[in-house]
Amino acid sequence: MKKSVIESLSECPLFRGIDVSELQLLAEKYMTINVCEKYETIISENNYTRSLGIIIKGSATVTKHSGETEILMSILKKGDIFGMATLFYEEDNYLTEIKACEKVTMAVFSKDNVRAMLSLYPQINENYITILSEKIHFLNKKISTYTRAETIQKVAFFILQNTDDDRNSVTLPYSITKVADALGVGRASVYRAFETLENDCIISRDGKKITILDYNALEKI
What we know:
The chain has helices spanning 3-10, 20-30, 84-87, 111-120, 122-148, 151-161, 176-183, 187-199, 215-220; strands spanning 31-36, 41-43, 51-57, 60-66, 69-76, 81-82, 97-100, 104-110, 169-171, 203-206, 209-212. It has 2 domains: 3-136, Sandwich (Jelly Rolls); 149-220, Arc Repressor Mutant, subunit A. The strands form 3 sheets. A 4-stranded antiparallel sheet has the order 1-8-3-6. It has a 4-stranded antiparallel sheet with strand order 2-7-4-5. It is α+β, with helices and mostly antiparallel strands. It is built from 9 helices and 11 strands.
């Protein structure tokens, strides 16, 4: 198993507290590696297998279709997990679509292999429950923000939830129009929010690349 893969898995919250040597054995027994090319669909609402995925390299968008509208839900980056919501829930359709923004390498664990790991490793079991709890808390916060907040607060929250690992920047996978659709507000309002954040020296923007100049100020919004 490549050292870079094990290092990426060790940074994943699912394997928090698992020794690297043990993780090596675990990966060899339970994991497979899949690669998707840029713009390739990783999972669609009608085409998926019940498995758990972890991004090892690259990034992908998570979107949901509402009629003709495609709503951006989140951006998956290195170490992010997907598939937890449907792994043990017998729903006919996957809730979202996941598509590679660039070439993506991912670790994949089948449903049976995840069940085996949860049974054999109490720490992974606890981590799994913790991650699900964090996701519920995050979704509640997201619903609260998107239903009651002003546009600038929605934009600030959107930037914060999609920051790179260093928390200093965001690369938008979509145009401002699609970001506006994801936030449920008008495009002009999103442009004004970005302009306000730039004028206040909280962010700078160059096309789809957003640099965070004042992280604390962005959080306070």
